[in-house]
What does this fold into?
Amino acid sequence: MTNFTFLPEPYRIKMVEPIHLLPPQERVEALRRAGYNPFSLRSSEVYIDLLTDSGTGAMSDRQWAALMMGDESYAGSSSFYQLESTAQELFGYQYIIPAHQGRGAEQVLFPQFIKPGQDVIGNMHFDTTMAHISLAGGIPVNLVHERAYDTQLEHPFKGDTDLDQLRSYIVKRGAENIAFCIITITCNSAGGQPVSMANIKAVSEICQEYGVLCFMDAARFAENAYFIKKREAGYAHQSIKSIIREMFSYTQAFTLSAKKDGLVNIGGLIGIKDNREWYEHTRSVLVPLEGFPTYGGMAGRDMAALAVGLQEVVTDEYLEARVYQIEYLATRLQAGGVPFQSPVGGHAVFLDAKKILPHIPFHQYPAQALCNEIYLEGGIRPVEIGSFLLGRDATGVQLESPLELVRLTIPRRVYTISHLEYVAAICTKVMQRASDIKGIKITYEPPVLRHFTARLEPLS
Ligand SMILES: *Cc1c(COP(=O)(O)O)cnc(C)c1O
It folds into this structure.
């Protein structure tokens, strides 16, 4: 991050959405009402919303125009065929099936391949992916390289699967006990860290050698391709599109949340490379779960906007500005002495709450406590990725997450550098009073995916 030159956003603002910072006392009350869980805040209580980059992006004028042209026919919508041909061309897959969002794609695709008791291996599964593996009777297994857990280690591809572990795991467990492998690009749960082309290829080859199917969880496929172009030898002069083609050539199917690199607010896709039987079966499962195969839970207008989004996201100009925003925020946090996972990934900066709040043990949820302080200080809503998100084992014992992270997630094309300047200033102020921050305890939690609705209370 030396020679940092200033890069203005490659768009100008045509429509504005006002945002407001509540006075400090009202933020205190809002957080109390929310049970000290930022997920339960109302958006009107938030000034800068960095909860997620999922479905929170801004569409372009071309996407809004496409929206007006959406074909709402139940069957055979022309918007579907636009989306289908765009995705076929982009990913090099023969079969494209729409779904209402990423988890819809997962619920349709996964149960076809999982027999109860089988493992689903991968670099690091996303939380809804884990949930859908478990719901289908499978066991999610993460085989990400251990360097992903070292937040200070500089490595260009911290989302890579550990190849030695992958091989020995398949041998030890037996290929017949493994339903399939999923490569998550970028690796969201490991901090949005990219996966190298060499690693995607090697994982695919090892899977092939043992007869294990290999799929992609492709939510941030364009950001991953951009990192390959910038960081991996031999790709600097290739187009983003050709890098994407190569990435997907190594897998047989994908699920994709269009709410990320699709540049739309809702939507998802399933891609099947060439297996007609899987395609036929997937289409028939789709109908009762998501909808008819030419809409799959999406409105015609949403499919039309997604077809345009998939074209906009693969441009160098868009991706350069996208990743620049994340790097800019990181540089400003570094100047303020706030530790974060380095190098930064493609969609967020992950603050290292273990380093910021070393006095708070994992069972007092240091990252959740830090999220709350950032909200109180400046009306910014981050999200916890740590022990609070991880949950409990089968016997009810709280698991210890190897990382306690606070994710500052940057929505696509929504905030400007001056918003990020403010975010860095607020985090720096919180950092300066870190030793006074207390841990937190849970007062209510639901049995699954508790982090969305749990209530907490600060420890005195
Ligand atoms: C968001 C996401 C999903 C789930 O997609 P939704 O659209 O939120 O249902 C799955 N995997 C990864 C890696 C994601 O980031």
About this structure: Residues 54, 101-103, 126, 128-129, 184, 188, 217, 219, 257, 259-260, 268 surround pyridoxal-5'-phosphate (CB under 6 Å). DSSP finds 16 helices and 14 strands in the chain. The radius of gyration is 21 Å.
